Amino acid sequence: MYLESIGENWEIFLNDHSLAQEIHLDISHKEMILRRTIRSFRLPVDSSLLRSGENLLTFRLIGDAPASFLSKNVDLGFYIDGDYSLTTEQKLSGEISTLINLCLNTIYVFFGFYHLLIYVKRREDLYNLYFGIFSVFMALYSLSRSNIAFEVIYDTTWITRIEYSSVSLLAPLFLLFMQDYFYGRAKFSKVLFAILILNVVIALTTLLEPFRYTMTSLRLWQISILPTLVYLLYFMSKAVYLRKKDAILLATSMFTVVFIAVYDVIDSIFFQSGIRFTQFAYFLFVVALTTILANRFISLYRQSEDLNIELSQQKLELARQKNAFFRFVPVQFLNVLGKNSAVEVNLGDSVLKEMSVLFTDIRSFTTISEQMTPEENFRFINDYLASMEPVVQRHEGFVDKFMGDGILALFSGDGEITRSHQTSADKAILAAIEMKKKFKQSMHKRRILTLED
């Protein structure tokens, strides 16, 4: 036996023999404690129960009465148009439909969690968060309408609750996605805020209210979706008019889904064929959206790479300028001014410090230089200055400036007595003594080299 659908509580008899039973009533036998609605139901039938001639197939159906004039119990009995037969042939259409639905929803869930992960890594783009949640809820809605959900979840009350609550959140989530995608974190309009609040209330009510009223909540949502679609049309048209990036592609994809979704809503109210095209339209829609988001991500990545290259070049230029600057202004001088960088120094900056000043030059340098060629002069001065500066630094001083063969060195008097128990004057004198010794050694070595030549 193959039944396209049967619900909510039921029992099947063949010639007064019970074939299957899913009746779950309370002690008073007035209320159902759980509902067992099944789609694509297959029931093996013992051929010995059949008799020649006429056979009597009886269905006992139990369900809630309509809770209001807005709704009826759509899950009672054979609520989906389709195949209801007793045959020897195996029906495979249900398995194929279930497999397709499972594959599509796996893709939707993957896209959803993928964009949620992107949002975790890049929280500036809220549209990834909205699209991720939208994809997950769309997958929940689609799965709740699949045969596999009715096979896995025994109490089908929760399948219906999940279906109705998830579908009510799709429109506001999509609007939030478009709002952030096109306009960033601009303030929500009052209409969008009202749509969001209304649909969240409907979703929460559907999950918490007595089950017999869930269809009433669904009817209220179906009524409210019409002005929501009008606002969605206005919102999308405005984005296209303002020539927002990807607006035309997104509008084309969206209107295709909206058209098919409206058909599915009308079908669920009037025809109840059980055939839903939304999942196939959404597959094309989510591919288009994912392509749009991927292109934006690639564009942002390229911009980031270009900015990194530009930043690296600026760092190199800054380092070059810094090195050039420190040739004339030592780091220690900035420390004395209480600055960390040359860019912090302003015209007129000054501090009051106690310091020792050491000024040195080479005695009779004019006479010495006259005995050398210009090239030898430059080499002599460079060697001399290069050997004197480390001596100053060893005694915690720094060279303020070079003036020909002259050196002006400063020794800070902060704290006056340092760890080496030397004042700034002590350090300046010790540096001068060592510089004199160093110069004598250099001149002695130079004379030896001259004699060898």
UniProtKB/TrEMBL annotation:
Cited Gene3D superfamilies: Nucleotide cyclase
Matches recorded under SUPFAM superfamilies: Nucleotide cyclase (SSF55073)
Molecular function GO labels: adenylate cyclase activity
InterPro entries per record: 7TMR_DISM_rcpt_extracell_dom1, A/G_cyclase, Adenylyl/Guanylyl_Cyclase_3/4, Nucleotide_cyclase
Record's keyword terms, sorted: Membrane, Transmembrane, Transmembrane helix
Keyword Membrane: yes
PANTHER family given in the database record: ADENYLATE CYCLASE, TERMINAL-DIFFERENTIATION SPECIFIC (PTHR43081:SF1), ADENYLATE CYCLASE, TERMINAL-DIFFERENTIATION SPECIFIC-RELATED (PTHR43081)
Protein name stated in the entry: 7TM diverse intracellular signaling
Provenance organism: Leptospira interrogans serovar Grippotyphosa str. LT2186
Organism classification: Bacteria, Pseudomonadati, Spirochaetota, Spirochaetia, Leptospirales
